[in-house]
Amino acid sequence: MVSRSYSNLLELASGDSPTFGRMNRQIPRIMAVAGIMSNIDNDSKDTDLSPKDRIIIVANELPIRAQRRVDGNGSGSSSSSTCCSKGWNFSWDENSLLLQLKDGLGDEAIEVIYVGCLKEEIPLNEQEEVYQILLESFKCVPTFLPLDLYTRYYHGFCKQQLWPLFHYMLPLSPDLGGRFDRTLWQAYVSVNKIFADRIMEVINPEDDFVWIHDYHLMVLPTFLRKRFNRVKLGFFLHSPFPSSEIYKTLPIREELLRALLNSDLIGFHTFDYARHFLSCCSRMLGLTYESKRGYIGLEYYGRTVSIKILPVGIHMGQLQSVLSLPETERKVGELIERYGRKGRTMLLGVDDMDIFKGITLKLLAMEQLLMQHPEWQGKVVLVQIANPARGKGKDVKEMQAETYSTVKRINETFGRPGYDPIVLIDAPLKFYERVAYYVVAECCLVTAVRDGMNLIPYEYIVSRQGNEKLDKILKLEANNRNKKSMLVVSEFIGCSPSLSGAIRVNPWNVDAVADAMDSALEVAEPEKQLRHEKHYKYVSTHDVGYWARSFLQDLERSCGEHGRRRCWGIGFGLSFRVVALDQSFRKLSMEHIVSAYKRTKTRAILLDYDDTLMPQGSIDKRPSSKSIDILNTLCRDKGNLVFIVSAKSRETLSDWFSPCEKLGIAAEHGYFLRYSTKTFYFLALPLYLITQAPSNYYTG
């Protein structure tokens, strides 16, 4: 689909056709002057995604690994997956969801451009060279941010204010999350504006789709919509969206909501997250939503903002290829020798070292299991893989210290020579090593107290499906290779609703988690197989490709009305929004009104009173003497029928407009009508009530 944006609103309002020019289709397609677009194509044209379409994927981090060269003088050679500059080596980050998203769409189906930051800081004198290399070799547009600005934006506002609040942690004291800091908010807005400038360098608004990811860039839709009223824009939130009671404590709550509503499509992992967002829009902005043919939409100044509910999936091809690696097979063999040969059952936890992952609660549940069921002592091992923390702060350090002390205490209490009930792995693991642990573990425990999605259970299920070589290593009989897996998952994580065969727990209830762990160990083999089969069928069919294609199809559908609407941008700063009206709509002009008034002999003039004749912020709602004089002047013309329309009572309006003898009044939203002071009010029944009334019904 092709759309156009308008920069000259006066030209648009007059109905004149603006002048447009065709953009260059080649990379990079640079937008030199905002608002210069080509004419709208025929609306009946097929709008399916084609090889000519492009997706601009915007996220905080690019799916790129950057490594400083030790020798500092690279040859500049490159391959399909790596590239070198004089000082840097660049390669794709295979674990990045953004790259997996591209693979899921198919390399030939659509062109993908990435906009985001690098994980490494690039010196100012090298940024131009790095920019060109990433754009030409990877189709990535790096966003370079000063270190101080990035720290205030990411580690400040994102991680200390948005992240805790979205995970239901209120800053009741300075130690519990960050108190709102206006300077950090300003840094957040500044970074989002820098991202908008980067997108401007490559976007072709009439053709490109823009897909923004996660809470780091929540105000970016406003900056893009302000420059291109008809930009095709989607946003997906990968974190939870809190209930309105939590969200409304945020000082900039309306600014974020209005910014998100400048998107065409907003995506969430679960229905609960979407419901919370809609509730916030209703309570704080007065907006209502409705469902049409299975789609949820919010009406926002004439635009329909669609809501998408679909959890993200994993990259099946990547995980299956890792399962086939010789390194994975060797690691699986080592783990079987370490645990299986000794008759020990492995329970597995894989979490970031984060305060919301519930690692300590999981350890306490393991302690409770060993206390209540001493028969498991010496037979069950909990392997807890703790990935490095993404954030910084006092709370993270305290959580790490508590984790280490809890592990030490439990191992000292229940351990014995050659046996530790808990094995904590806090060193970074390669992906194939983690997959090997998945293969060997009898049960996976994901007990986060709050998490947006969490794909660990999905990875575990596919890993337990394995392949023929792993079956031989695990010594599964050829005639009985039914796969099995068990999951204990928190009810507060996004993937929980999609895993109906998992044992759901409240992670705060340590006793219940311990009972769930015991139940998972005691479940009969046929039931484990049935649960695994059900989960694997869902995970394998709802992968990252399915998620990406579904989102983009809905984004295209949501943008279908762009070419059939006339758009005006109104408001300043983050209050900017686009008013979309029908093509036949024309803005009233003084010249047209005067001309029509003079041409006609009989005129009906309906004047809204509340917030129109009377300003919205007025304390005294009575009409001024000047307003009364103007109304009397209009009423003296015998060719005019003048009515005031208001929500106020007939008594109030009769009192206020008593000097206007010939003025008609429609009181209480037109429920009562009066043509002049010489006539009585009468009940204005709807036409359908009058026509359907029985013959003896008195209408007055």
Automatic annotation (TrEMBL):
Read off the InterPro entries from this record: Glyco_trans_20, HAD-like_sf, HAD_sf, Trehalose_PPase
| GO biological-process terms attached to the record | trehalose biosynthetic process
Which Pfam families does the protein's record reference? Glyco_transf_20, Trehalose_PPase
Q: Which UniProt keywords apply?
A: Glycosyltransferase, Transferase
Which branch of life, at top level?
Answer: Eukaryota
MF annotations from Gene Ontology: glycosyltransferase activity
For this chain, the family text in UniProt reads: In the N-terminal section; belongs to the glycosyltransferase 20 family.
Name of the protein in question? Glycosyltransferase
